[in-house]
Structure prediction request, 102 residues.
Amino acid sequence: MMNRKMMRQAQQIQKQMLKMQEELESETVTATVGGGVVTVVVSGKMNVESISIDPDAVSPEDVEMLEDLVRAAVNEGLDKAQQMASEKMGALTGGMNMPGLF
Prediction:
């Protein structure tokens, strides 16, 4: 059974985690692939905020390559956002495993 001190500490950590999750909503990471052809911005909540494609890169014969670059940029952006969220939550929880957060 948890004593009162441990219960207070758990409540403090929970409050800090909620605050951290709110902060993650406003933070973003940027991934650029293909030498700057495709850029993706992803939020800390794993939402794709924007995709930019260099207009000079588009021609009918390059569509398949461009689609591959967009996919690669989105995946890289999601990976970076997941890493950012994990680092921030890990710093908060001191490395404790807290299932269901990220």
Remarks:
- The chain has one domain: 4-93.
- The longest helix spans residues 63-93.
- The mean pLDDT is 82.
